Amino acid sequence: AGDQNLFTSLYPTLSQQLPREPMEWRRSYGRAPKMIHLESNFVQFKEELLPKEGNKALLTFPFLHIYWTECCDTEVYKTTVKDDITKWQNVLRAHNSVDWLIVVVESDAKKKNKTNILPRTSIVDKIRNDFCNKQSDRCVVLSDPLKDSSRSQESWNAFLTKLRTLLLMSFTKNLGKFEDDMRTLREKRTEPGWSFCEYFMVQEELAFVFEMLQQFEDALVQYDELDALFSQYVVNFGAGGKCL
C-alpha cells in the first residue's frame, strides 16, 4: 500500500536481495529449527484480497502488509499521508490483519526540492506516535536505497533483516492456524457429510507450502497421511462403511 511508484522503483532490488540470506525457521511441537530462504510475491493492496471468515486457503491471501512512503513534507503528511495510513490500518483492523510494516524512504535528492520539510526522525516519530503505539519497530527507515554507497547498503541490510523476520513470524503464525483448522476438519471425518475430497485439497495445499520452502520431507509426510487416510476409507467402504 502507499506510494506505488516508489515501490515499483525499489522492487527489482528488493526481490533480488530478499531471498539472498537464509533465516532460521523455528516451529512448535519440538520440531528442529531449519534454515530457509524466503521468496515473496508482492501484490498491490486491495481489501478483497484479505482473508474472509472461514477461508481455509493458505496461499491465496497476503500475510504481511507494507505501507511505503517517502514523505518528508509536514503539510503533505498532515493532509494526505496520515489519512491514507489511517484508512489502510482501519481496513486491516476490520479483517483482523495485525501483521504490517510502514517503510519511510529517505532520499537526499527529494529533500533538496522541498522547503517545508521535517528531519526524517521527526516524520518517523510522528508516524510511530500516530500509528505504532508500543510497536515502534513496525516503522522503519530506508535511507537512499537507490544509491551505491555503504550507508545505503547498511540501510538495506537492516530493512531486509526486519522484513524477513516479520514475514517469517506472520507466515509461521498463519501456518500454525491452518494446521490447527486442518486437524479439526480431520477429526470430523466420522460425521455425516464429511468429504474426503474437500479434506484432500486442504492437506495437499499444506504439502505445496512445504514444497515451496524446499522442506520435501515435511511435504512427503502430508502425502503419506493422505494415503493412509484414503486407504482406511477404502477398507471401510469394502466393509460396508461410508462412501467417499
From TrEMBL:
<dbReference type="GO" id="GO:0034498">
    <property type="term" value="P:early endosome to Golgi transport"/>
</dbReference>
<protein>
    <submittedName>
        <fullName>Trafficking protein particle complex subunit 10</fullName>
    </submittedName>
</protein>
<dbReference type="InterPro" id="IPR045126">
    <property type="entry name" value="TRAPPC10/Trs130"/>
</dbReference>
<feature type="domain" description="TRAPPC10/Trs130 N-terminal">
    <location>
        <begin position="1"/>
        <end position="240"/>
    </location>
</feature>
<dbReference type="InterPro" id="IPR056913">
    <property type="entry name" value="TRAPPC10/Trs130_N"/>
</dbReference>
<dbReference type="GO" id="GO:0005829">
    <property type="term" value="C:cytosol"/>
</dbReference>
<dbReference type="GO" id="GO:0006891">
    <property type="term" value="P:intra-Golgi vesicle-mediated transport"/>
</dbReference>
<dbReference type="GO" id="GO:1990071">
    <property type="term" value="C:TRAPPII protein complex"/>
</dbReference>
<dbReference type="Pfam" id="PF23036">
    <property type="entry name" value="TRAPPC10_1st"/>
</dbReference>
